[in-house]
Amino acid sequence: MMETITTKPVQTSSHTTPMDVFIDIVRILLDNALTWQVEGINEKENSLLIQVSYQPQLTRHRKALENMKSILADYGYYVKGSPNDDAEQNS
């Protein structure tokens, strides 16, 4: 039996996505049937601004967004380092 699509409240959020993790993010979006589009391209930072539409009442969508945000946060931490790194270097 196929799931029926009913009109449910949809929210959108935008995420700056470095090209280094773009495929990982798109895989999450596609695997979870999330609607998304590229809002902008930042060539200097080698990143895209992606707008994601999701239904907050669906656990699957919430978990997909959490997973996406986690990857983006981990990548930011990896690239920029810990906030404590600067303090340690300056002391």
Question: Could you explain how this protein is built, in words?
Answer:
The protein is of the alpha+beta class and 91 residues long. The protein is built from three helices and three strands, in the order E-H-E-E-H-H. The chain has helices at 22-31, 59-80, 83-90; strands spanning 11-18, 35-42, 47-54. It has a three-stranded antiparallel beta sheet, covered by helices on one side. Helix 1 (22-31) packs antiparallel against helix 2 (59-80). It is globular, with a radius of gyration of 16 Å. The N and C termini lie far apart (64 Å). The relative contact order is 0.20. Residues 87-91 have low confidence and may be disordered.
Which helices and strands appear, and what pairs or packs with what?
Layout: E1 11-18, H1 22-31, E2 35-42, E3 47-54, H2 59-80, H3 83-90
Question: What is the gist of this entry?
Answer:
The protein is an alpha+beta fold and 91 residues long.
Defining traits:
91 residues, alpha+beta, globular, 3 helices, three-stranded antiparallel sheet, disordered C terminus
Helices and strands, in order, run as: EHEEHH
> Could you estimate the helical fraction of the residues in percent?
40-55%
Rg computed from alpha carbons, rounded to a whole number of angstroms = 16 Å
* Average pLDDT level: 87
Number of helices: 3
- Largest sheet, described in full? 3 strands, antiparallel
Poorly predicted spans: 87-91
